[in-house]
């Protein structure tokens, strides 16, 4: 009886303990773990002194999730999470939640906010981002951010002033997220939390990868940084905050992207003509130039210099490597002898000539590309090995087909370049119909070639599904198809960017002609006329009164026809981009896996080589011991 009573008491205590444990868990979860809409996390009560409320409805649902140790409120301070960055997902897409400033900075800002005189300088603070821009260009950035906040009227202006004071990155990304630049996408904000696309791990995490893979990343970084100078037809982006932590590798797109855009300078491209490029100048030794320098001359190699000097060059202080430089450390001697890589990087970092640095940039791209594709020369003692491919005849036929696809893409690229040239010639004349016919012919050729190449790639992709993905032949097919698909995508993206830029140039000409003729239109009215395709909207009755007006009308109609054709061309490209995006995404994981396995194989070969040497030494020792025992037994 006593035993049964003790047993019941023990069970009761266990049940009480479980209840207390569960209650404690929910209490901890409520008070110590952030949920997306926690008041301490989004700080919605501080609005409109915040980044906006456009995503707050989503934050209340399960579409927004937090993950990682940062969501524990215990770590929500400058000692553990100094960058105030959190990880999670938005509608199952990986995103990063940023508060854009340290906790101490927000506290200082709130104290300052109580004193109105503290913000007298805010109205002109955008000059650090846009140092030499007119009111119209500045208003584009202001309006893009205001539209992203979800506020109206005065509240949106307060939100803008707050963002200018705290961190300019949301303003930059709200204006540039759809510009096809290698930067993250800005979704919006809820309170003091901005939401950005998670583009991958930063380059610090790749410091100990194989040299071949780091060469590939260095090439992609150079391309991405140079695109900030050249990709956008309206503006030039100078990036001075060069740091390995500010560059990330997007594995799906196989592209290096640039994050942390707080310290950039953006200049309008039309301020400079080709004659403004200074081919011989000296940069300052610091990472940042005086803003007046950006306004006086076009610096086409500035971003490339930053990469050569602060990322690729050997570090002066080895303990600073992870933060700033020497990404291509431990260059194999054979590669350095063959390509003279160290000297080229040094020249790229130190030369004072723009033209020379751009030539070195092209050389670096070619060298790094060949290193990334080749296994040859990675190790001094490496020996060649023969892979037994499943069917030599099948691979030969496949490679012939790949060569034909590559030739078609080269031809497509050539036609795209010719189209760009014709588009520029068209802007100089409206009377010569030859340019219009030539452009139509070349656009039709681009359309035909792109669909032909796309169909051939899809055919090869379907054929590859019948092969073993782990076999040598399957890996060869997978990598070749991926490379060509990405090449086609890049060519078509370039064509699309050029087409959109030409449309904008034609539109500007129409605006100028209308203003000169006294028939000015608002932007909405002009877009409506262009979409309708009806020329009467430009005002025939008043513009046909004089001969000069007729010429003006002809010029406007010519540009309108160009724009209608361009819009049709852009629509036709849309479906192809979707197909290419699917192919690139599907094949990206396989290629990354192959690269990882190759780098691991190199390590295994080195370890095996060392083990063989040790085994041979042990074998020799064993023979000596055996001979010694034999002599002892004989005696």
From TrEMBL:
Q: Does the keyword Ligase apply?
A: no
Please give the SMART domains that the UniProt record associates with this protein. t_SNARE (SM00397)
Give the InterPro entries listed for this entry: DIPK2A/B, SNARE, Syntaxin_N, T_SNARE_dom
| Origin: domain of life | Eukaryota
Listed GO CC annotations = membrane
Q: Which PROSITE patterns match?
A: T_SNARE
The T-SNARE coiled-coil homology domain covers which part of the protein? Answer: 553-615
Q: Which UniProt keywords apply?
A: Membrane, Transmembrane, Transmembrane helix
GO BP annotation list: vesicle-mediated transport
Query: Which residue ranges does UniProt annotate as crossing the membrane?
Result: 12-34
Which family does the record assign? Belongs to the DIPK family.
State the name under which the record lists this protein.
t-SNARE coiled-coil homology domain-containing protein
